[in-house]
Predict the structure of DUF3700 domain-containing protein.
Amino acid sequence: MLAIFKKGLVNPPQELNSPASPQASINPKNSEEILKGFLSDACNGFSVGFDDKALLAYAPPQPSFKAHQRLFCGVNDIYCIFWGSLNNLCTLNKQYGLSKGGNEAMFVIEAYRTLRDRGPYPAHQVLKDLEGSFGFVIYDHKAETVFTALGADDALKLFWGIASDGSVMISDNVDLIKSSCRKSFAPFPPGCMYHSERGLMSFEHPMNKMKAMPRIDSEGAMCGANFMVDAYSKVNSMPRVGSEANWATWGQQA
């Protein structure tokens, strides 16, 4: 999967940007080249663009007993790429009043809509209730917001980076990220979620702040930082519950 968000739509942590000087001999690929390469390597892949602000590209997994499920879904201008699986999907669908035949991508969109529209649970609690190995990227076209998360079991890998034109790229293919973002990329932290208006936080440890850890590659160059939970630093307020538990409660970090 591949998601590209133009500069200004998503403001990632500044530590994701590498301070290393770019090598003149290496020309980073632009968004169009990255997309073309993704689709040329994919079987039955496709992409969806949104007013030159965002782009989502999807390809079904290749036949393999080791391949994780991949899904794409769009409902009411909310689009989701999901990979992995939820062991308690039937229970979650029943809880949210969804059809028994609904898949994980459909559920994630409904859960996002519930959170966006002032649902009864804080965001971190909704994600902690998901059992299984999962990762997803949501783009809400009307609200122009991005929401992404990665399961805590570390079974799936997700990467994010900042391209030379300032765009933010998210993909499970590290080579795609490297070819455009060079050193300004890092693994997305497991057990965490990112919202374009609220930033990065851990849904496993919502009362703790996140901290950036310097990362140096095999060439000795400083890369985009890794992010991990800071066990000694707490957020200023408890996440609220009830009717006030909307995005405004998202891990207010000072």
